[in-house]
Specification:
Helices cover 31% and strands 25% of the residues. The chain contains eight helices and twelve strands. A six-stranded mixed β-sheet has the order 6-9-10-3-11-12. A four-stranded antiparallel β-sheet has the order 2-1-4-5, covered by helices on one side. A hairpin with a 2-residue loop joins strand 4 and strand 5. Helix 4 crosses helix 5 and helix 5 runs parallel beside helix 6.
Length: 264
C-alpha cells in the first residue's frame, strides 16, 4: 500500500470461488478504508452474494486472501467473522419473532448474573439498559422494548437489526439490501441511521440495487459483472447512467478515464 493511503479496514486479493465448473467469483480485488462507506452493485448472479458469503465466513474461498488491518485472516464461520468485529445484516435479519428487543439484540451474547451453562440466570436489566444505549446511539426509536418483534413493522425490525450490528461491530458493518422490502418512510429512517454511522466513522459495505440510495449514501461504488469486480468508481467521479452502463455491459470499463483513486 502506498504511504499516502491508509491501511484498509478490509482488503481482498484474488478472491475466487468455484463450484465445480461454475465460476461464481474470480480474482476479486477490493478494499475498504477507515470510515469509508462503499456500495456493491450488479445484476443478479453477478457475484455479489458470493463475495459477501466469503468475507463473512459463510463459505470458504477456492483461493485468494482476506486481510483486516493489513493482516491475513481466515474465517471458518460467521461466528469467527463476528468475533473479529465484522457484523452483517442479511435480508432475513436473523431476528426471533417471539422475543423482545433486548433479547434479540443480545441473542447469542446474553449477559448473565450467574453462568451455569444452559441453566444460566440472565441479567435482563443490564441487557435492557445496554439496548436502550445502542438504540439511542444509532437514533432508533422503539417505544416499547418489551414488545415481541412480530408486532413491529418491517422498518422497525430493520432498525433493530442495524442497531444490533452497530452496537457490536468493532471493524465494519455489512448491509445486504437493507431497504428492499420497506416503504418510503421506513426507507428514509434506515438511510438516516446509515448517515449517522458515517458521521461516527463506522466503515460500511452496502449491497443495493437502488442507485438513488447508493449515490446518496456511499463514497465509492464497486461494480460486479459475470462473477468479477470490473470497476471501482468514486461517487464524485461517476454518474448513475455510467454505473448502469457498467452493470449491463453497455460501457467498457477500459474506456473510462483513470482518475485518482479510481480503478477499472
Amino acid at each position: 500500500t502506498p504511504m499516502s493511503e491508509p491501511t484498509p479496514v478490509i482488503a481482498v486479493k484474488g478472491l475466487t470461488k468455484h463450484y465445480g465448473g461454475v465460476k461464481a467469483l474470480t480474482d476479486a480485488e477490493f478494499r475498504l478504508n477507515p470510515g469509508e462507506h462503499v456500495a456493491i452493485v450488479g445484476d443478479n448472479g453477478a457475484g455479489k452474494s458470493t463475495f459477501v458469503r466469503l468475507i463473512t465466513g459463510v463459505e470458504q474461498p477456492s483461493r485468494g486472501d482476506i486481510l483486516m488491518d493489513g493482516q491475513p485472516v481466515a474465517f471458518d464461520s460467521p461466528l469467527d467473522a463476528r468475533e473479529q468485529g465484522v457484523e452483517t445484516v442479511f435480508q432475513n435479519l436473523a431476528l426471533a419473532e417471539d422475543l423482545d428487543v433486548p433479547a434479540n439484540i443480545f441473542m447469542g451474547r446474553e449477559i448473565t448474573r450467574l453462568n451455569l451453562g444452559p441453566l444460566s440466570i440472565l441479567n435482563h436489566r443490564a441487557m435492557r439498559a445496554q439496548s436502550v444505549e445502542m438504540l439511542s446511539t444509532t437514533g432508533v426509536k422503539i417505544q416499547d422494548l418489551s414488545e415481541p418483534m412480530r408486532g413491529m413493522s418491517g422498518g422497525q425490525r430493520q432498525c433493530v437489526a442495524i442497531a444490533r450490528a452497530a452496537g457490536f461491530a468493532k471493524k465494519l458493518i455489512i448491509l445486504d439490501e437493507p431497504t428492499a422490502a420497506l416503504g418510503v418512510q421506513e426507507t428514509a429512517r434506515v438511510e438516516e441511521i446509515i448517515r449517522g454511522l458515517k458521521a461516527r466513522g463506522v466503515p460500511l459495505i452496502i449491497i443495493s440495487h437502488n442507485l438513488r440510495q447508493v449515490f446518496d449514501l456511499v463514497d465509492r461504488i464497486y461494480v460486479f459483472r459475470q462473477g468479477r469486480i470490473i470497476c471501482s468508481r468514486l461517487k464524485s467521479e461517476t454518474t448513475p447512467e455510467e454505473i448502469v452502463g457498467l452493470i449491463t455491459g453497455a460501457i467498457d470499463p477500459a474506456s473510462l478515464p483513470q482518475a485518482e483513486a479510481t480503478t477499472c
